[in-house]
Amino acid sequence: MGISLPGKKLRQSLSGRKEVDSAPLDVPKGHFPVYVGENQKKRFIVPLSYLSRPSFQDLLSQAEEEFGFDHPMGGLTIPCNEEVFLSLIDG
Which candidate among 34, 58, 85, 88 keeps its CA 20 to 30 Å from the CA of 12? Predict the structure, then answer.
């Protein structure tokens, strides 16, 4: 017998599912995880506001062409060099 969290138990019973679909606990509100890299993937947490940047949108379009929307990491995957990604988000 384990400890149950009332809120989680309620969400589980309302949804009828065993797992609750929600954002990971380490991702702050207004952000989303992105997996970046060509071979080894590194996880970055970026603000949602980046989605409106034309340079970030271009990068997402390139990622869509290569990966489509079925991401093996369970999140958004961008197949670019980590340094390129860092220069994009810093700029």
Answer: 34
